[in-house]
Structures are given as C-alpha cells and as structure tokens.
Write a structure and sequence with these properties.
Keywords: Membrane, Transmembrane, Transmembrane helix. By secondary structure, the chain is mostly helical. The protein has three helices and no strands. The protein has one domain.
Length: 78
C-alpha cells in the first residue's frame, strides 16, 4: 500500500506530464481548421464544371429571384 505523500507525488508527476504533452500539441488544430476553411471557401467560389457558375452565384441568383417574387406578391392587389 502506498503512503499518502507518495500518491500525491505520483499524481503531481502525471499532471506535469500531461501539461507537457498539451504544450507540445499546441496549434495543431488551427492548421486543420485552416485547411478545412480554405477548401470550403474554394468550393463556394470555384465554378462548377458544366454550369460555369459557382455555388455562391447560384445562391445570390436564388435570393434575387425570391425577393422578386416576394415583391410581386406583395404588390398584387387582393
């Protein structure tokens, strides 16, 4: 059976090891998020083959069409 002070020393040692491991891994997720965001933005603005429009252009056109139909519907007399 370990003594109380030995257990505390071991526990402190484990925490110190974990802190070292965390500092060694610092910034790794930032690079991964950066790669994912670059790919996502590229997918939005690069033209789709065969349609010569990007997803962003199609979304903007959809909003314009929706607004046009809304304005037409609101101006239609009952």
């Amino acid at each position: 059976m370990t003594k109380r002070w030995e257990h505390r020393m071991l526990r402190g040692k484990c925490l110190a090891d974990r802190k070292f491991f965390r500092s060694d891994q610092s910034g790794a997720s930032t690079a991964e998020y950066l790669v994912v965001m670059i790919v996502t933005v590229a997918m939005l603005f690069v033209p789709i083959p065969g349609q010569n429009e990007s997803v962003m252009e199609m979304m903007i056109q959809g909003f314009k069409d929706s607004h046009h139909h809304y304005v037409w519907g609101m101006s239609y007399p009952l």
